[in-house]
Specification:
By secondary structure, this protein is mainly beta. It has 3 helices and 23 strands. The structure holds fe (ii) ion. Fe (ii) ion (FE2) binds next to loops.
Length: 413
């Protein structure tokens, strides 16, 4: 069957002119790309009163993680969630790595939540700042050299490459012009001292040692490199007449996941259009959102540095407070990173330790208690950092869009 049916009381179009007193749910496959039905409920699908069993929504306060690299320069980031495709880590590195590193297990996408510094690699140095997405392809030799002490990096590790989505009808300049992509200039480091290169393969580190600095590349060419874009340079699309699905905000695609960026934008103006994310039950994806800066419109009691995980099968949608606020709000003021995993994501013991166990109650209409943790300084710092661009001295801005073969986005949720 490939035509829509319409039964009972239903809206003419999705997300617009909902029947009086109803709560719309999009029950769809392949994220927002497959077959779908819109269900008009008489209660919010999140109005549960009790959970039994292991499946429930999670909210991790990543500010509470204590990665080994925060205090020990030889330490590692901490992994808090993952599956066979994707592993999520947090690094709070305060000191430069006294070694070089190479990940033979996967590609890495670093999101800079807080802190500034330099990523040294085979391709040359690349400065980073808050809001940067830095792509470090598999097996690139690299080293993190922070310039600040209060650093917070979210690392998304994938078995396959992170690539740009196909932009289709929107054209190549949509979301961001490829000219804002920054790539490193070669800069060989001449140094007669022993350097360790740590190589991660099959989850284990081995080390090799050189009597010189391994970053001795004086030139490079090709379509594979370290590169970055800042979230600030992404210009989200929206419709004034209909709420667009999260897939409209896709930034990267990789085999086991899709990464989207939520940025400030005006809300829909059409009086009949819904202005908050519609309810859905993540039929084919586990959905992760990392809250970077701003006020998180659709979530109550969520602050910067927190991360939610909504597993497939359980509904999620706006908190009751957000549904009420949509009558008066005219724009969003949030910066967040969403990752939808194709296969179920599981918490590690470190993730379990910072999980807000009562999060599932946060949709209850009478929820009034404050969140368990509010890093006010962190919120302010991140918001300020996003406010204006910082010159990234020493880096060239060259479009690399042509070399990144666009991949079809096979749905996301
Ligand atoms: Fe969602």
């Amino acid at each position: 069957m490939n035509y829509p049916l319409k039964k009972g009381k239903a809206a003419q179009q999705a997300h617009v002119g909902l029947p009086e007193g109803t709560f719309e749910e999009e029950h769809g496959r392949k994220g927002f790309y497959g077959k779908s039905a819109h269900l008009y409920h008489t209660h919010p699908p999140t109005a549960w009163v009790r959970f039994e069993g292991k499946l429930r929504p999670h909210c991790l306060d990543l500010n509470k993680l204590e990665p080994a690299d925060q205090k020990n320069p030889k330490g590692e980031p901490v992994a808090f969630m993952g599956n066979d495709d994707i592993i999520l880590h947090v690094s709070r590195r305060t000191e430069p790595m006294p070694f070089y590193r190479r990940n033979a297990d996967g590609d890495e996408l670093w999101f800079v939540h807080r802190g500034k510094g330099r990523l040294e690699s085979d391709f040359g140095p690349l400065n980073f700042e808050p809001g940067d997405y830095v792509i470090v392809p598999r097996s690139v030799t690299h080293r993190i050299v922070p310039q600040t002490k209060d650093n917070f990096f979210l690392i998304m590790e994938s078995k396959t490459e992170f690539e740009e989505p196909e932009k289709g009808l929107l054209g190549q300049h949509a979301l961001y012009d490829p000219a804002v992509v920054t790539t490193p200039e070669p800069q060989a480091i001449s140094e007669d001292k022993e350097w360790e290169v740590r190589i991660k393969a099959e989850g284990e580190y081995s080390s090799l040692f050189y009597p010189f600095n391994p970053l001795d590349v004086i030139g490079w060419k090709g379509d594979l490199t370290v590169w970055k874009i800042n979230m600030r340079d992404i210009r989200p699309i929206m419709s004034h007449r209909a709420h667009l699905p999260p897939s409209a905000h896709t930034t990267f695609v990789t085999q086991g996941a899709v990464v989207c960026s939520f940025l400030p934008r005006p809300l829909e103006k059409d009086p009949e259009a819904v202005k908050v994310p519609f309810f859905h039950r993540n039929t084919d994806y586990d959905e992760v959102i990392f809250y970077h800066a701003g006020n998180f419109f659709s979530r109550h009691n969520i602050y910067a540095g927190m991360l939610t995980l909504h597993p497939r099968g359980i509904h999620h949608g706006p908190h009751p407070q957000a549904r009420l606020a949509q009558a008066t709000k005219t724009e969003t003021d949030e910066y967040a990173v969403m990752l939808d995993g194709l296969n179920p994501l599981h918490l590690t013991p470190a993730g379990e330790a910072v999980d807000w166990k009562e999060y599932w109650k946060s949709w209850l209409e009478d929820v009034k208690k404050p969140a368990p943790h509010r890093p006010a300084e962190a919120v302010k710092a991140a918001a300020t950092a996003m406010a204006k661009p910082t010159k990234t001295a020493g880096n060239s801005k060259k479009p690399v869009g042509a070399r990144l073969v666009p991949k079809r986005v096979e749905g996301k949720g």
